Amino acid sequence: MFDFIIIGGGTAGLSAAVYACRANKSTLVLERESFGGQIVDSPLVENYPGIKNITGAQFASDLFEQAENAGASFKCEAVLSAVRYGDVIRVKTEADEYTARAVIIAAGCEHRRLGVEREEELIGAGVSYCALCDGAFYKNGTVAVVGGGNAAFTDALYLADIAGLVYVIHRRDEYRAEPALVERAERLNTIRLVKKAVVKELVGDGELTGLTLEVDGKRESLKVDGLFVAIGQQPENEAFGTALDENGYIVTDELCRTNVKGVYAAGDCRAKTVRQLTTAAADGAIAVQTAIRDLF
Questions:
Q1: Residues 240-276: tens digit of each pLDDT
Q2: 230 in Cβ contact with 170 (< 8 Å)
Q3: pTM of structure
Q4: pLDDT digits (tens, 9 = 90+) for 210-227
Q5: How far apart are CA 287 and CA 20, in angstroms?
């Protein structure tokens, strides 16, 4: 029996663990894979207040150590369900069962992958899923953004102020993005739109140097310094029994409460507009403080 069970060991979950332990609450963090979350793959973090620069792996390691030193317990177990029974939440994992007065879901979400060979190998070495995080590395360089929705065009417009040239690669002839975003991109000389194109190969020995595209049925080579994949994110929240929006994100109020008493959500897994390192940490703190006011 714990005061808090936190599902997910990324920035939101570990931040919540720090705040819960500092409030003298017994805390268990459950993580199905490895602690740290997506930030581990970032070669350099330069947009976290108070830290000039740090690798994503070091940031995650420091945050884990901070939560551990504060008194949190950790288990690498996948969560199968979280169900309320009376005044407690019962969390079942693949290995055991635990109960808590409060549960914070900080399960994050996965960036959808292109599914191209060597994609995982080149993450952090030219392949990125966050323009805001990694765009500054490509000042005056040439980059490509894959996608046709609002996220892809927002990334492209952001990168156009940094890179010398931005290609937007989309597999279809029409875009899902709002027409206003597409029109803004079309007006810029630094953005080139490539339609009916699919990335078939990532080129580069240890670091990305180019792409092989299939454009309207023909193979073409494209030299780029960086590739930003913006084809959506995929949450996995079905096991938790909370209300979800149409995209599968957990619906909460502004204080991170879900529709289930005693269950809160923090970080990228919840429905919100901005998903950044700072907002994940803020969610973790808010969820703990809200739960303490509600339940303790």
A1: 999 999 989 999 999 999 999 999 999 999 999 888 8
A2: no
A3: 0.73
A4: 999 998 888 999 999 999
A5: 10
Closest CA to 224 of 137, 110, 132: 137
Task: Please check the confidence at residue 97 and state whether its pLDDT lies above 80.
Answer: yes
**What is the torsional sign of CA 69, 51, 158, 194?**
negative
Amino acid at 212: T
Matching residue, tokens 């990168």: 159
| Residue of 234, 226, 204 whose CA lies nearest to 145 | 226
So what's the pLDDT on residue 274? 85
Classify 37 as helix, strand or coil.
helix
Q: Do strands 142-146 and 226-229 pair parallel, antiparallel, or not at all (unpaired)?
A: parallel
Q: Tell me the β-bridge partners of 73.
A: 28
Strand, helix or coil for residue 216 = coil
Q: Which residues are catalytic?
A: 130, 133-134
Q: Rounded distance, CA 85 to CA 122, Å?
A: 45
For the stretch 270-292, pLDDT in tens is 999 888 899 999 999 999 999 99
Does the pLDDT value for residue 194 go beyond 80?
Answer: yes
Q: Is the dihedral of CA 271, 274, 277, 278 positive or negative?
A: negative
The pLDDT of residue 76: 95
R_g over Cα of the chain? 21
Please report, for the chain, how many H helices and E strands are present, in that order: 6, 17
Tokens representing residue 98 in the block: 């635990």
Number of neighbouring beta carbons within 10 Å of residue 236? 13
Which residues are CB-neighbours of 177 under 8 A, at least 6 positions away? 148, 149, 150, 152, 153
Q: Which amino acid is at 241?
A: G
Instruction: Provide the H-helix boundaries in the chain.
Output: 11-22, 56-70, 131-134, 150-160, 179-187, 277-295
pLDDT of residue 80: 94
